Amino acid sequence: MFNRRENFSQYIKYYPVVSLIIALNILIYAIGVLPIVGDNVFNLGAGANFLIADGEYWRLVTPIFLHAGFLHLLFNMFWLYLFGPELEKIAGKMRFFTIYFFAGLLGNVATYLIQPPNYISVGASGAIFGIFGAFAALVYYTRNTMPQLKQTILPLIIVSVIMTFLQSNVNATAHIIGLLTGFIIGLIDFHPRRILNWRIKKKK
């Protein structure tokens, strides 16, 4: 289910939203390593709570597309590359983007509300955890029909949450709120009645 066997062109064709998000993150990171320009990109987009309090509300969104280093970018994009396509295929392009974006956004909003004014964060991990949360909702609805999904997703979520609190310099607030946001949206989007209605409409 999560084995990616598509070639480059097939991957872009089948999963355009995931591909676009990955490309955007890589592009922004590439700009961010340029001399002078890179510092400006990071300084203008990082989720600095004291600047958000001063009215720079775009910082609730821009951190989703910024990363603190190459390994930070690599790990987040690897998880998106691996797990994003299946969710985009199941949920559809717009619903997938809704899950990803709002998980990242609400993770940053919670970070602003909970963490101290001097707290600064960047990264797509809150949005990535939103993907995990959406799969958890799918597990809830398919627990009796798709046991293999449960066996894959639940251990991944448990380990990811544990590692969140064991590692340093990790925005645990964004991770947990992103996970819960994805789960709640998934419960709404993947409700059996809604899925049945989508299938009926597609046949008409």
UniProtKB/TrEMBL annotation:
<feature type="transmembrane region" description="Helical">
    <location>
        <begin position="94"/>
        <end position="114"/>
    </location>
</feature>
<keyword id="KW-0472">Membrane</keyword>
<keyword id="KW-0812">Transmembrane</keyword>
<dbReference type="GO" id="GO:0004252">
    <property type="term" value="F:serine-type endopeptidase activity"/>
</dbReference>
<keyword id="KW-0378">Hydrolase</keyword>
<feature type="transmembrane region" description="Helical">
    <location>
        <begin position="57"/>
        <end position="82"/>
    </location>
</feature>
<keyword id="KW-1133">Transmembrane helix</keyword>
<dbReference type="InterPro" id="IPR035952">
    <property type="entry name" value="Rhomboid-like_sf"/>
</dbReference>
<comment type="similarity">
    <text>Belongs to the peptidase S54 family.</text>
</comment>
<dbReference type="InterPro" id="IPR022764">
    <property type="entry name" value="Peptidase_S54_rhomboid_dom"/>
</dbReference>
<feature type="transmembrane region" description="Helical">
    <location>
        <begin position="153"/>
        <end position="170"/>
    </location>
</feature>
<protein>
    <recommendedName>
        <fullName>Peptidase S54 rhomboid domain-containing protein</fullName>
    </recommendedName>
</protein>
<feature type="transmembrane region" description="Helical">
    <location>
        <begin position="176"/>
        <end position="196"/>
    </location>
</feature>
<dbReference type="Pfam" id="PF01694">
    <property type="entry name" value="Rhomboid"/>
</dbReference>
<feature type="domain" description="Peptidase S54 rhomboid">
    <location>
        <begin position="55"/>
        <end position="190"/>
    </location>
</feature>
<dbReference type="GO" id="GO:0016020">
    <property type="term" value="C:membrane"/>
</dbReference>
<feature type="transmembrane region" description="Helical">
    <location>
        <begin position="120"/>
        <end position="141"/>
    </location>
</feature>
<dbReference type="InterPro" id="IPR050925">
    <property type="entry name" value="Rhomboid_protease_S54"/>
</dbReference>
<feature type="transmembrane region" description="Helical">
    <location>
        <begin position="12"/>
        <end position="37"/>
    </location>
</feature>
